[in-house]
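Dear support,

Our group has been running a series of protein-ligand predictions, and this particular one with heme C is the one our PI (initials K.S.) wants archived with full inputs and outputs. We had some confusion internally about which version of the output was final, so please treat the block below as the authoritative record. The input we submitted was:
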Amino acid sequence: MKKITFLFFTSLVLILTISSCTQNTYDDIEAEADPIPEIVTYQDVKPIIDGVCLACHSNPPQNGAPMSLVSYVNVKEAVQNRDLINKISKNEGEDGLMPLGGPRLPQSSIDLIVEWNNDGLLEN
Ligand code: HEC
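Confirmed final output from the archive:
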């Protein structure tokens, strides 16, 4: 009887040990997404603008902002004709930094908007 009990527990431990070895593929490990998509479109940029800039650049604009940034065409036009990238890239506290009064956007958001411009300001 003792022998059977011993055998039972030994095989239990063995089974648990073997079954706890899982398989990790390289796909699992590489699943951490690259923060900048291959081609950046307005869909990637919109959440940043909506979350920060619309406090003033709404439609109609508030707090003395000269234009709204609510649509793809608005934002594209501001990059092309209103120096948007230069304004978000200024240093903290520097004159003309957007968002007005700071804080400066996180560098990753600025990089994303710069990349959007480099990729041709696509909508989708
Ligand atoms: C607190 C209000 C406020 C917020 C938030 C804000 N802006 Fe502005 N923005 C202004 C005002 C006021 C002006 C006009 C005065 C100036 O240029 O400093 C302006 C001007 C601009 C201009 C220049 C327009 C021109 O024709 O000269 C751009 C581009 C701009 N903002 C982009 C942005 C972006 C992008 C964001 C978000 C990252 C943002 N702003 C957030 C108030 C704001």
